[in-house]
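Same chain as my last thread, 261 residues:
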Amino acid sequence: MALSSRTAARPPRPTVEFEVVAVAHVSPQLVRVTLGGEGFAQFEDRPETDKYVKLKFTTPAPESLPVTRTYTVRRVDHDARTLDIDFVVHGDEGLAGPWAARARVGDRLSLMGPGGGYSPDPSADAHVFAGDLSALPAIAAALEALESAKPDARGHVVIEVDAETAIVPLPAPNAVQVEWIVDPAHDVEALAAVLGQLDWPEGTVQVFAHGERESMKTVRRVLFDERGLDRAHVSLSGYWARGRTEDRFQAEKREPIGKIL
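reply #2:
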C-alpha cells in the first residue's frame, strides 16, 4: 500500500564528503577537527544548537565494514565555510576517537545530516544545562547562542568529567554559573545529586540534559519526580551507554533498557 503524503518515509539524507582543514587539541580528552572543502556547499545547516551528523568510517581490516558514528556539530562558520566537530578521545578505544587523534589536514571524511531538536529559548526565565564530556559541544554551542540572543540570561551549567585536565573555558552569559564535577568513578548519581541540591531558578526554566544513558535516567527522576518540570521545557536523552558499542547502544533505544522518556 502506498504511503500518504503525511506518512511518507523521509528520503535518505545525502552523504557529503569533507576535507580536514585543521586539527586542534582542546584538551587531552578532546580533539577538534575542522572540516571544509568543496563539500561545504552541500551541507544544509540547521538552527538548532544540538545539531548532529552521522560520520562514516570503515572498521579496520580484515572486516573493513562501513559503520556510522553520531557526533554533535560544535560550530558552523559560514564565512570560513567550515564546521567543527569535537571528538572525545580515550587512547585507542573506539573508532572515531582514534581517527580524530590521528587526523591530518587533507584527510577526507563523509557524513550525513544534520539533524537536531533543541535551541535555547531566550524567552525562558532561566536555563539549566547538564551533561558529561559527550554533551560539551552541544552545551557550548547553546551557551554561545544564548549569550548572543540574551546576554543577561540566568542559569546554571553542570558538567561531569573524569579529570581536571578535561575542564575547558566555556562561553556563557555573565549570570550563568558553570560548575564542573570531577568524577573518575563515573557515579551515575553524580549529576542528579547536584541538580537535586541546586538552588532552582524561579519562573520558567528550560533544561538541556544529555549524556551517559544511566546517568540521564537518574537526572530524569530529579527533573520530573522531584522538580515537577513540564516535559515541554526539557530536552533529555542519552548520547551513549557505558559498556556498550554505539551499534548496540542504538539498537537498545528500541528496547526498555534504552528508554529515557
